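Dataset card, provenance and construction

Sequences and ligand SMILES were collected as paired inputs. For each pair, a complete structure of the chain with the small molecule in place was predicted and serialized as structure tokens. The example below shows a pair involving NAP. Curators did not alter the output after generation; any descriptive sentences attached to a record were derived from the structure itself.
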Amino acid sequence: MGRPTSSKLRVAVLAATGMVGQRYVSMLSNHPYFQVAVVTGQNSVGKKYGSATAATNLPMAEEAKRLTVKATNAESLDDVDAVFSPLPTEVAKTLEPELVRSGFKVITDASPHRMDSVVPLIVPEINPQHLELLERQRKVKKWKGVLVATPNCTAAGLALVLKPLHDALRLKRVLVSTLQAVSGAGYPGVPSLDIIDNVIPYVKDEEEKIETEPLKMLGEVGRDRISPAKFEIGAMVHRVATTDGHLESLYVETEERFELEKVTKILTRYRGEPQKLKLPTAPAEPIMVTNVEGRPQPKLDRYAGTVPGMSVVVGRIRKGLDSKSGRLTLLSHNTIRGAAGSTILTAELMYRKGLLG
Ligand SMILES: NC(=O)c1ccc[n+]([C@@H]2O[C@H](COP(=O)([O-])OP(=O)(O)OC[C@H]3O[C@@H](n4cnc5c(N)ncnc54)[C@H](OP(=O)(O)O)[C@@H]3O)[C@@H](O)[C@H]2O)c1
């Protein structure tokens, strides 16, 4: 426990040349706990990392740019202390359990194992206690390492806002309509001629993830399973021509009265364990509320807060059709709060709890 003074933990970033992988390498530049020791890929194997990345132009540490991209397998990983895994879904399905069986501690942004009953699905501000599942994971799976998952990029911001609302008002039903940025589809992602001057009311498998993952995260860890939270979520997704930042419009039905002032206070004051521990990637305010007309907007608000991209910005809080319902809009950065940023925050929390290193 405690912050390393002289040596940092060595970490690997798999699929490091992708949209999420580049976010990791950029966010881990000069990180106080972790140092990127290995980057892996597929088509870019053998190239210098600095010349193998496309489309983002993110700032990166010079040492990272000089790393050679390795093949994505256990042999490439040397003796790293943790593995960040934004692997493509099909690769993650088999490779992640293989790595964990051979002893690696893997935290993944990919979807295949998120709903496994012994894999903690974590947004560090809302359910750090789900890391308890790792003991059961060890017993059931007989893995030498551990596997922890970060939720879907849209579900992450949504769950963070639903947590304080559910605690205070008891949610009955949530309807969410999304406007999702193109970087959510990776690189090169959606063909430009399909998305410029257009909106696509479909993202493969996204609605199912949004409707189930928050319920697992807001659920309770019981003796042999997680009991999911008992409210319903209905999702309607759209891909739009923004670069980064998913906008989500919510209609919520609650057991308690939905009062504007109270809701604003609940959201603004919400803090979690990362804020108490002052973890390096913890934003001072995980949820920021704006009263400015017509906000939040991806272009203006996606990097709001003390750790850019880690705060979810909420606006347009207003009443629903009766006293126990309400509406609001949230904005969450998909590759930061919805992927690399949340996963790094989980790793920081695991490190401080003695679960890494
Ligand atoms: N984009 C988001 O907002 C977001 C948010 C949350 C979660 N996720 C999840 O994160 C993962 C990565 O998404 P992304 O947007 O970063 O995708 P991406 O931009 O398409 O990047 C794909 C990456 O995977 C590597 N790759 C391709 N085939 C591989 C293979 N067979 N073995 C090992 N590596 C391989 C590529 O390496 P080369 O360049 O070397 O070929 C590249 O680094 C996906 O599971 C996605 O669902 C994405």
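Derived descriptions for this record:
Confidence is low (pLDDT under 50) at residues 1-5.
The pocket of NAP is lined by residues 15-21, 41-44, 72, 86-89, 91-92, 109-111, 153, 183-184, 186-187, 334-335, 338-339 (CB under 6 Å).
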